[in-house]
Amino acid sequence: MLWYKAWLDTRWPFLIGLAILVVLACGNVFEYPTTARLLPLADTLPHGTGIVGRAIDEAIQTQRDYRGFIWWQWVRQNFTQTWTLFAVLLGSGGLLVSGSKGALFTAALPASRKQLLGIRAGACMIELLVLAVVPSLLIWLLSPAVGESYSLTTALVHASCMFLAGVVFYSFAVLMSTTFHDMWRPALVTCLVAIGIGVVETVVRQMGGYGVFAVMRAETYFRSGALPWGGLLVTIAISASLFYAALLNFVQLDL
Amino acid sequence: MSDPVVIETADLSKAYDASTEALRGLTLQVPSGSIYGFLGKNGAGKTTTIKTLLGMVKPTGGIARVFGLDATNPQASVAIRQRAAFVSEDKDLIDSMTVDEIARFTASFFPTWRADLAQQYRQTFDLRPAQSVKQLSRGARTKLALLLALCRGAELLILDEPTSGLDPAAAEEVLQVLVRHVATEPLTIFFASHQLSEVDQIADHVGIIDRGRMAVAGALDDLRAQFRRIQVVFDGAAPTPAFRTAAVKRVRREGRVLTILTSADADAVVAEARALNPVAIDVAPVTLKDIFLESVNAEA
């Protein structure tokens, strides 16, 4: 029944996140014909210089085919940003939110703190996996509707990398929640950290395959077909360490 | 319920930070089968004591045992919570559930859950199964919290201000349910309160906590039988004597009158007072309210 309580506690951020991701996934697929029509016009533009110019060039070059368009618009931007936001929201708060309804009632049940945190994390992991897989499958399913095809393997690889690497933000939010006992400070701090990492990764492109967002986007897989195994292992190890630290914190806390 | 003492603390202390000492060497013993009223002013340390006993707060020193198990040990505290029920002051419940859901949720943790009793209390308390917990009134929340506590087959019921926020009729109903329940089920009740009338009404043992320390503890009948207020009146200003009798709890000097509160040996105190050549000595029994007020208003 603790699983059921975890579901009740997390269902709204999960369902809202799922709805937004589904809408974005559909939107990206059905936006492709328009983009494909407009792309030839981009060739008439002069080549850009500087960071912004190079970025625009890269965007145009990458989106010349459907797979590139989906990676650039969906995987690289909408999917990564939205999924990360909901990973942060699901990790923030929980049993420790000051004055949260049910915290004392739950803490007085014959369940250990490890069990309480573990089951909530388990429920959130399943929800995050669904948030990664369902919209990815939609891309695969809906692509024929715009006269394109998108490989199921590619969809699942991107969903897996998003989930496995992105869990690092969930774990960080959980750790912050065992430090700040409200909903918003853990979310805010984790979002700021994510934005910081994103900026650093954009500026330092050499991080390539090993930046968290680069691994979440499976950039090496998109560009060369190579799975980012090293990056995945590193991010999984960091996630596990962060969650373990959160667990140690939680076990020691006064409620 | 084979242990003679269900709850036992010795020299228990808890400091939340350098300036907030909630418990300062609390020593407490709750006999098995008793209804123990744990009295204290707001901020005296009642809730911290309860949370420590349930493993929710880690003490900074001392011993806390429930059913002979170390409440500070995480594994043991799970075993304690398996045999104890807790109703918090705010009647904290899971608002996202319905009455029926929270009953099934709670029952899933307790193999000793009494479905028959749950059904009976649900009818007595007029709680509808499909009703959302969030929409319950304060009184209905208290009744539901009590139902969930009473039906799990617990050996120990810990209540933190069980009637806070209730009107007198609802408070009385809650107390009567507790009394009736304890008459039919083997149960120890430990309830924190600052409602003296409630404690006087249903408790057979009391402990008065003041600034994190136990000021007075014992069987209520014993306290009533042993505590005396002795008023000694003098011709002129009352002296400031040092009484040798250890049972003297407090001496107050106001003009010509010396008021002494003693927890025992009233005769010995009277004999000492006579040696001061008073014009009159009056010995009177005291109420729980007197004991409480004298205990918590004493100088630190």
Walkthrough of the structure:
- The complex is a heterodimer of chains A (255) and B (300).
- With 255 residues, chain A is an all-alpha fold.
- Chain A has one domain.
- Helices cover 77% and strands 0% of the residues of chain A.
- Chain A contains ten helices and no strands.
- In chain A, helix 1 packs parallel to helix 5 and helix 6 crosses helix 7.
- Chain A is elongated and about 70 Å long.
- Chain B is an alpha/beta fold and 300 residues long.
- Chain B has two domains: 218 residues, Rossmann fold; 70 residues, 2-Layer Sandwich (Alpha-Beta Plaits).
- Chain B is built from ten helices and 14 strands.
- In chain B, the strands form three sheets. Chain B has a six-stranded mixed β-sheet, sandwiched between helices. A four-stranded antiparallel β-sheet of chain B has the order 2-1-4-5, covered by helices on one side. A four-stranded antiparallel β-sheet of chain B has the order 12-13-11-14, with helices on both faces.
- In chain B, strand 7, helix 6 and strand 8 form a beta-alpha-beta unit.
- The longest helix of chain B is centred in the middle third of the chain and has 17 residues.
- The radius of gyration of chain B is 22 Å and the shape is elongated.
- At the A-B interface, helix 1 and helix 4 of A face helix 2 and helix 3 of B.
